[in-house]
Every structure is written in structure tokens, then in C-alpha cells.
């Protein structure tokens, strides 16, 4: 797709992208255009990384370097504190013989980036097996990991993306040793890390929160491991889960926005040429022009599906998921292990909290408020793009059962 086919980005975003692309691009930046860089880079969570990239460049005004260095030092101090907490949590899980995999930001900061202060992260995402969720939750609760007073939080997962058919047996069979927070633990293999970043960006955040940061993560992985990445495996996993487009779109954006060279051995299924313009326009709008929506309370995709779907059955499914999410979801959001009877109490707590929020939005939609019409159109666009990324008809037809006892999971370790 030609760059002229997507909307013109704001000047400050164009300048920020040029600074991230490297020394060849910063030479053409005017002195007055540098003034927006610290603020825009902080807003998109890449200010510390930008400092690392630019600190030795001669074409950057010293005042800009000083501002970026301040962001970097704050982030470095915060990351050291975060990893100290993570190290204690990992020790507790290991002491109780609970296998754990560190996901996303903490893993990236320690093993992919060469500099601990370069990557911003604000929580710890830990993957455990379904049968260990209860014990892991109790262990971490015992040492105060879920305390609401903590500035650094932990989320326990037993899946990578809950709306997708991902073979978790295969994921666990490919994990790699990693030292994180001073503890010998495990992270996803680099191919699964790349897949997870792409999926989380598209399905969980709709390209909004930290979208540019994730593209920088993808670029860092490709730059560091591009020649050794098993692209055949990535294409296989994406095809198996019906999310090839969800991998293709971030790769395309990383190439377009950050001038990243995608390896020549990347399978054609991950390099759609030309890629449809609507998904690219949607992603760019969510990443760079959605500020007016950011103060609107986050609502479940299941709520918006009630308005977007024309199928009565799909509306009923979405309504059921909205009212009664699975017990693992409740365990992630509230201090109640999945098998604890306390979870029923928190279902009621959640229902009470959500009634106020959702009924208010429902009333505004029924009253046809102009702002709500814009928000509803935006969310309907998100749902269309999620369907596009997922090949939803195939996904629905296949169905799935997640977890270690899933009948759809492969019985033998993956080999390619």
C-alpha cells in the first residue's frame, strides 16, 4: 500500500516518527519542530527509548536531549523498583513449585532491549497453567501482590488472548529460560512473544493504548532476531488460530511508520500486498487521533457487540458474557481465586459497579446524544476490524475450549 493512501498524520506525530526512524531522518527536522518531541514521545510511551536512540546524535538540540534524559532516568528508577517487586513474586511462586512465564513489558525490558530504562511498563503479566491459578492467586495474595495501594500491579493469566483459539500446550512447550528481576525464570520464545505483542495490540487495546510503543517492540525484535526468527512457525500458528491478518497489520505498520525492514523470508501469508486500506486507516486513527475518546470509561467489547451485531443469537451470547464472565476473569480483577466461593460475592460486586456505568451509557445511546453516536460508530468500527483480523466466521465455526484439558489442543508437542 502506498503511503499516500492513508490520512496525513499531525505534524508532531510525523516529527516523532522521523526521530524514531534514525539519524538519516532527523537531519531534516526544523529546530522549532523539535519542541513537540518530548511531550509527544512521553504521551506515546516511547520517550525513554527515544533518549537511548538519540543521545549520541549530533543533530538533536541539547535542550531536547536533557528533557528526554529526565524521562529516561525516571523510568529507569521506576523499572528497577518494579523488577524488585516482580523478583519477590517470582520467588514465592517458585517456592511453591508453580511454573510461571513472564509476559510482555517485563520480559521485553530485560531480554530484548539492551537498556533496562528504555522500555516503559506499568504492571507485570504472568502466565500460569489453568490448574495452578488457585494456588498462584493464594501465594501472591499472601505476600500482598494484589494490594490496591501498590503502584505496580500483577495480572495472572492462563491464556494469551481470551477471544482466540491459541494452543496453550504448544506455547508452554516452547518457553525459554530468562533472567528477569534477578530471578531465573521463563519467558515466551521469541516467535510467540512477537505473536503475543501483535495480538494484544489488536484485540485487547484496539491499537490505542501504547500502540506506537508496541510497534517499537516489534521493530526491536525484528532488528535483533530477524535472521533467526522462525517465520514458518509464526505463519503456522497464525493460520491455525485464524489470526494471520492480526499479525500482518502490525508488521505492515512497523514497516510504514518506523522504516523497519521485514526479512525477505517472511511468508506471503504475513505480508499481504497490497494490504486493504481500511484496516491501516483504522489503526492509524486509533493510535494517533483518538485523544478525544480517552476520557470515556472503558467498556467491555461485549457491550458494544449488543449494538453492532445483527444476529439475535450473537447479542444473547454477548449479553451472557457481559453479565457472567468466566471465573478466571473474576480472579484477575478481584481478590478471589477461581475455585473460591468468594468469587460469587465478587460477581455481585462487579454487577453493582457495572450497572451504574453501563446503564448511564445505555441511556445516552437511547437518547441519541451526538457524542454517543460518535462513540458508538467508533466501537462498531473496532468490532468490524476485530472480525477482519480474526476471520470471525471461521473462528465461530470452529469454536474452542481453552485450558489444559481442552479437547481442541494438540496432544503432541509442536514440531515444524
Shape: globular
Structural class comes to: mainly alpha
- In DSSP terms (H or I, runs of 4 or more residues), the helix count works out at 19
Strand order of the largest sheet: 1-2-3
How many beta-strand segments? 5
- Overall mean pLDDT: 85
The residue ranges in which pLDDT falls below 50 over 5 or more consecutive positions are: 393-416
Helix-strand pattern, N to C? Answer: HHHHHEHEHEHEEHHHHHHHHHHH
Strand content is 5-15%
Separation, N- and C-terminal Cα atoms? 31 Å
Query: Approximately how much helix is present in the residues?
Result: 55-70%
Q: Main β-sheet, in a few words?
A: 3 strands, mixed
As a whole number of angstroms, the C-alpha radius of gyration is: 22 Å
What features would you highlight for this structure?
416 residues, mainly alpha, 3-stranded mixed beta sheet, two-stranded antiparallel sheet, globular, disordered C terminus
